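Q: What does the assembled structure look like for these inputs?
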Amino acid sequence: MINIIGMLPSILMIVAPIMIAAIGGMFSERSGVTNIGLEGLMGFGAWAAATTHVLLEGRIAGSVWIGLLMAVAIGMLVSLVHAYASISLNADQTVSGTGINLLATGATVFLDQIIFKQDRTEPFKMGMMPGPGGIYPTAYIALALLFITWFVLYKRPIGLRIRACGEHPAAAASAGVDVRKLRYLAVLVSGALAGLAGGCIVLTETIQYTNMTINGSGFIALAAVSFGRWTPKGVSGASLLFGTAMALSIYMVNIEGLRFLPPEFFNILPYIITLVTLIIFSGKDYTPRADGLPYEKGGS
Amino acid sequence: MPELKKEETKAETIKKSALSAFAGSDGAISILVVVLGFVCGTVLIWAVGRDPGNMYASLLQTLTGYDVLRGTWNARYIGEWLTASLPLVLCGLAMGFPARTGLFNIGAEGQYIMGMTVAQFVALYGPKVPGLHWLLALLAGALAGAIWGGVVGWLKGKYQVSEVVATIMLNYVAYYLSRFFTMLIPEANTYKTQNFPKTALLTDPFLDRITNDSRLGIGLWVMLICCVIYWFIIERTKLGFQLRATGFNREAARCSGIKVTRSLTISMAIAGAFAGLAGVVVALGSFNYGRVISSQDGYGFNGIAVALVGNSTAGGTLAAGLLFGMLASAQPLMQSRNIPKEITMIISGLVVVFISLRAGFRMIIEWRERRAAQQKRGERDD
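A:
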């Protein structure tokens, strides 16, 4: 047990980005737009954060935070493509999300080749500094975002409207809600948060961006959204569980009682749990009803 | 409103009919989208101060084996191009087949990994009989992929589990299972196993001879046979009709007596078999030892792009697979000529993004037609 408490900062370090990305994904899906592209958006964010930080490190104080801002900005910019395709053009949302995922690996490494003349960013000397107790600020960011999201989605009128867009867009529209505008907003939020999550990963868990930096975290976040049944409480719990499983697969060698298990056991855990719960709860559908469906204005 | 009325010029009419032709024909849109992807790639290379000519020289050399800059010719490049295309075509078929049934199979990657892993085990532990050994590996790999895919279709039909989420989950399960089981092999270390026996390899002396000892082998025939099977099932059989009917309207299909769960399962199982074969073709065609994969190969995901460009038809998928294979195979040549090889991934990514925008072309046409109709009605009302 001592070991697990000692691992808490590491677990939180891995949980935080997954939770941030999953919250973003939840925003988007509650408004009715699936975002398969989380993985790619995180890649773009991680690349932007690492690049900005490396280039500014030592010249400007607080370059870590500028890096994170850049990550947010690029995440939003790229998610605009997804929003345009899936909201304005009623395109297949899975296709444009897949396009972003494919684009991310190519585009980020291409830019590295141009800027750094290698297939990864230059390593930076110092990432984000952990706070008291060795806990990174990303954990507090995730917690704050969780609370803000809950407050906005459930306590503010705009949250009610966003949820209405995901359940029954036509009804929302007849009540005077601008469905497309709100869906754009939700997708941009998911892009911003996915970018931020990518930035958090690269600045806390590693020292440079490579095309292995994200390595499925976006898909874990996507699983956390489904497993968490699209609610802030559920999604944060799912992220905590999945993040811990990921952390255990990395650090389990330090734990006496778990050493007999292969690390792949913990790697697989989040995916199996998600699949099994999807089957168990298949009778009751928690998915936002209009999730993944384009909204076309009724004929005049 | 007569002041808004405008005589249509000839140029506009031509533009309109050209646009309609594009929006009406999926094949033309695919070509347009690919061209757009290449244009963006070319501009990007030019913008970062490199010579786009080098990219096209590399692509030409991949395609024909002819080196424009040195004036030499080597057939091995053609063989390597086809070798790179094999898994892409097969994974494209794996994506396209369920697409015709209305399913989005994002899980070709996992089905590919299962096929690859099982084939590696058969290669190492199967009967070392010439001719039988590799055939057994192919069948086992196809079966493994079919099971991995079929489960998804069954879950979709029986429990309404989203195939997108399920396949993504199974991709990672397959990846870690493959690592775990392959590392259990006594002679394996953390990245490879011992060499395969010769009888397991998919080599073809005839293809070796004409392509100057490239890695191209029996996989080529496997791929071509799969394309024919795909075309035959979809277009010529009752099963294909049922699958397509399920894709067009699941409820209508159910009402007309088609067992939807069965259709979905079969469709995903066949898709999985194609992807599994892709895994075998790569494992026993391009390598002579078993791999402990440290990342996903990405053929499954690129297969999505292949199927989208090929409009999920057999011929289109074959052509698109060859195109993406050319891009993949030209990567080392580009890198050696000072072109970042990632440009090929950017082009494939852009192509998919553009395809998702193709609905936009249709909307422009529809909007123009509706406006024209409204104007006509306005004239009548005047």
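Chain B touches chain A through 48 residues (CB under 8 Å).
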